[in-house]
Write a structure and sequence with these properties.
The chain is α/β, with parallel strands linked by helices and about 210 residues long. Helices cover about 35% and strands about 25% of the residues. It has one domain: P-loop containing nucleotide triphosphate hydrolases (Rossmann fold), CATH 3.40.50.300. The chain has helices at about 35-45, 50-55, 95-110, 130-140, 155-170, 190-195, and strands spanning about 1-15, 25-30, 65-70, 75, 80-85, 115-120, 145-150, 180. Strands 1, 2, 3, 4, 5, 6, 7 and 8 form an eight-stranded mixed beta sheet that branches. Bound molecules: guanosine-5'-diphosphate.
């Protein structure tokens, strides 16, 4: 059983200089704006406002780090969640998009304690072209990718499993690497943690 003991905002950063000490295994969350990323992190952390607190709208977009202390079957597991700024603002100027790409790729490609990236898509909408290109990049660049299909509550129950299978097929990920989720119904919280926690070993090669 997985239980959240504590969850707290740690810090905000843009440049590697500002990242926290690499003393916890990290799980990064990426998705287009409005996909439900903040709601997902809050649901996983068992907190209503963990993310919004640090995510003042209109401020320069940053990487936000959160520490979560878990009890997993009686053992402490101490991941750090990294909220990457959402992509896909159609109106964002080109220079801002470049800035976003640089900030994110620098983190993803150089962070030694990054264990797994949670890529989020909207279960109802399906993957957008930008989701697919981001996924293609992630699969080539980071140790592991877990695809989470959120807002699954918007699909009738009979359509959920076929949608997950379709997502696995489109993205060429194994079906076990695609997890249905709903922050609204708190569906998939245990399943996402169960997929993530075995990947958090700090031992090299672990
Ligand atoms: P972010 O921009 O990716 O961080 O997205 P937010 O978490 O702020 O959510 C964007 C919108 O989607 C908000 O109106 C949320 O209430 C809604 N939302 C988020 N998660 C879910 C979900 O699981 N189900 C439904 N139906 N709506 C959701």
């Amino acid at each position: 059983m997985i239980r959240v003991l504590d969850a707290r905002f740690l810090k905000t950063a843009v440049e590697p200089d500002g990242y926290p000490q690499p003393d916890r295994p990290e799980i990064a969350f990426v998705g287009r704006s409005n996909v439900g990323k903040s709601s997902m992190i809050n649901a996983l952390a068992g907190r209503n406002k963990l993310v919004r607190v640090s995510n003042t709208p209109g401020r320069t977009r940053t990487l936000n780090f959160f520490d979560v202390d878990l009890d997993v079957d009686g053992s402490r597991v101490l991941p750090r969640l990294v909220d990457l700024p959402g992509y896909g603002f159609a109106k964002a100027p080109k220079t801002e998009k470049k800035e976003w790409e640089r900030m994110i790729s620098r983190y993803l490609e150089s962070r030694s304690v990054l264990k797994v990236v949670v890529a989020i898509v909207d279960a109802e909408v399906g993957p957008t072209p930008e989701d697919l290109s981001t996924l293609g990049y992630l699969v080539d660049s980071v140790p592991r990718v877990l695809l989470v299909a959120t807002k699954i509550d918007r699909l009738p129950k009979a359509k959920r499993k076929p949608r997950i299978q379709e997502l696995a097929r489109i993205t060429r990920l194994p079906e076990a690497a695609v997890v249905p989720f709903s922050a609204t119904l708190k569906l998939g919280v245990d399943e996402v943690w169960e997929s993530l926690t075995p990947q958090l070993s700090m031992n090299p090669g672990g």
